[in-house]
Design the sequence.
């Protein structure tokens, strides 16, 4: 049956340093690890007590089927704790309980918390009531449950702001038999009528008096407010920024790591529906409500292609949070291999935003295939984006481009060096002659980046640039956009192409900025000049 993992916690150490450590560990490691098992845990929430009682903290996770909690996929999480988790949890008084769901009633206004934005969800009220049953009373569990379902919860539903009530049994049937308790969880809006007339009426009925006198031994009641909604992607920067350098964390497989301190950053991953692993980096302003700028990189590069620009951005705009991610095809792709499409690439970005619970981007900046992805994202998900900057791309492909990609695939799969042979040719084609002669360190850096690309990833992701056409679709775009291009891209041909289609974006068209002495990746070749081109629009 469905149920819940219900965990109360009270840190044994009260200093601010440990509280930051506790928060960062729980929100970047412990909770997201469970949310990356959606077949077991579809959601997870943190609450803080509002009744002055301890334990102060509560975390609850809905469980799709309690039988999962007996299987290694879950039990191994606890058996294989990281050293950091073991050290942190050793300083916290923890009480874990398994609940079996018996009944649930929802208001017509109820919306699952994980479907709300953080701003909408935070502050919701949870009332947790636990009753223990009198020993030796036959049918007590059934009678108490019947009263809750048929009288008490219907009366609670009349309280202004009531959203949902659920009835649970603990211990879970998977734990065997012992003293049974009934736990009810009642959810309310931030503004509600608790302690009002409707609430008082629900606490004073003949049936309630009969049930309590006959069946209930003890009752406890706690009140909490919601302050954090977990996602599968670690995103906690605020507490991370309060920690010393030695608090840096890295998982054994190196897929997740953190950088504490004033330049706090989280490196982690999201997983697409088809199993694609999408690495990302989150940094910049540490507030969870800070406006976020995301970057979509070009084919054959990783998110480090934006390194120098991000340094400039963070210094010039400390109000912004910065998100970078690796485009599909940079790393290994899931089997069976299928050609990528621009729709898939736009969906990959939405996967990352959903994992990080980012409801809307302040801006999306993309280049080359990332530029096409940026326009497609603006067209497909206009409600998730305030503005975009698309660089060095075309709104439609050509047969000649498709043939060129096939030739490059043949080189990448070739026996004599493969993609390492493709890398220098690609960078020389991308970069302005000035970059190749006067900025050789940048050219070498990019060549090494390209050479590390997964070959199958390249083969199938570059097909997103075959046979696409957004010429007509872009006319209906409702998101403001800016186009940027290096003056030497395609020896100037791309400047003419982008100048030709800029007017077709939405009703007002897009501006076009040209970065001098730059080629296909102006943000990597000339980051300062690129920033000057976009800063006003951003």
Sequence:
């Amino acid at each position: 049956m469905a149920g819940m993992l219900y965990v109360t916690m009270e840190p044994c150490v009260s200093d601010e340093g440990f509280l930051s450590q506790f928060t960062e560990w729980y929100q970047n490691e412990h909770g997201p690890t469970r949310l990356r098992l959606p077949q077991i845990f579809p959601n997870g929430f943190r609450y803080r007590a509002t009744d002055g009682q301890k334990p102060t903290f509560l975390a609850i996770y809905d469980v799709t089927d309690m039988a999962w909690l007996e299987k290694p996929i879950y039990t191994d999480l606890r058996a294989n704790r990281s050293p950091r988790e073991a050290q942190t949890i050793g300083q916290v008084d923890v009480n874990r309980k398994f609940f079996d769901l018996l009944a649930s009633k929802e208001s017509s206004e109820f919306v699952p918390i994980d479907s709300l934005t953080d701003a909408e969800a935070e502050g919701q009220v949870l009332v947790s009531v636990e009753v223990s049953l009198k020993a030796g009373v036959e049918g007590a569990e059934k009678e108490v449950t019947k009263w809750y379902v048929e009288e008490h919860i219907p009366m609670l539903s009349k309280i202004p702001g009531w959203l949902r009530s659920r009835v649970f049994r603990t211990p879970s049937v998977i734990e065997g038999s012992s003293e049974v308790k009934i736990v009810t969880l009642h959810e309310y809006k931030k503004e509600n009528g608790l302690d009002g007339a409707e609430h008082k009426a629900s606490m004073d009925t003949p049936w309630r008096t009969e049930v309590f006198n006959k069946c209930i031994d003890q009752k406890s009641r706690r009140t909490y407010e919601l302050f954090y909604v977990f996602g599968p992607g670690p995103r906690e920067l605020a507490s991370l920024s309060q920690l010393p350098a030695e608090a840096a964390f890295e998982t054994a497989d190196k897929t997740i790591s953190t950088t504490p301190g004033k330049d706090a950053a989280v490196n982690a991953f999201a997983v697409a529906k088809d199993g694609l692993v999408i690495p990302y980096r989150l940094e910049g302003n540490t507030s969870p409500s800070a406006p976020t700028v995301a970057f979509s990189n070009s084919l054959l590069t990783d998110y480090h292609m934006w390194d120098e620009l991000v340094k400039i951005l963070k210094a010039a705009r400390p109000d912004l949070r910065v998100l970078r991610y690796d485009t599909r095809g940079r790393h290994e792709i899931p089997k069976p291999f299928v050609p990528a499409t621009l729709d898939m690439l736009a969906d990959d970005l939405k996967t990352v935003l959903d994992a990080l619970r980012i409801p809307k981007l302040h801006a999306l900046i993309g280049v080359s295939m990332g530029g096409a992805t940026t326009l497609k994202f603006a067209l497909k998900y206009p409600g998730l984006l305030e503005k975009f900057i698309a660089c060095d791309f075309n709104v439609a492909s050509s047969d000649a481009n498709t043939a060129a990609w096939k030739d490059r695939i043949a080189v990448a799969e070739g026996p004599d060096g493969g993609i390492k042979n493709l890398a220098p040719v690609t960078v020389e084609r991308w970069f302005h002659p000035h970059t190749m002669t006067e900025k050789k360190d940048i050219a070498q850096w990019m060549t090494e980046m390209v050479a590390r690309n997964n070959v199958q990833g390249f083969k199938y992701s570059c097909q997103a640039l075959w046979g696409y056409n957004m010429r007509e679709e872009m006319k209906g775009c409702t998101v403001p956009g800016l186009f940027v291009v290096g003056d030497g891209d395609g020896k100037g041909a791309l400047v003419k192409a982008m100048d030709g289609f800029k007017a077709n974006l939405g009703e007002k068209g897009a501006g076009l900025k040209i970065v001098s002495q730059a080629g296909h990746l102006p943000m990597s070749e000339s980051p300062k000049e690129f920033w000057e081109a976009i800063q006003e629009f951003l």
